[in-house]
Amino acid sequence: MKAKDYFTPEEQKRITDAVEQAEKNTSGEIRVHVENECRIDVLDRAVQIFAMLKMHKTKLRNGVLIYLSLKDHKFAILGDAGINAKVPEDFWDSTKQAMLEEFQENRLTEGIIKGITMAGEKLKEHFPYKQDDVDELTNDISFG
Q: Is residue 87 a contact partner of residue 126, using CB atoms and an 8 Å limit?
């Protein structure tokens, strides 16, 4: 089964809508990448995907990637230097824990949306939307 097939079109839309809603209030960028397997350390793979998606190209270095490997039951959240400098040290761990609680109840989509929402709130707090902001990246959700 392809990674994309784990999500119904409605679930994919809910995830995309959550990203769009979170990004309305910030100059930050949030992306979700889902694939079946992760053959290396999950954080190393997230770093590879972050670079592949050119998320480091945001002007304020405020991109956030939520990476999931479905068959391996692994996931990571990766924030760029700009957002990492602003959030509390334990923020990404607490976000992962909130997502994990949803995942453990077989609510994959809700867990992803929870992570998007939490990241979006911090991005809004530290990188509020400005009139001259442009959407630098596209495709809020991608599949490997």
A: yes
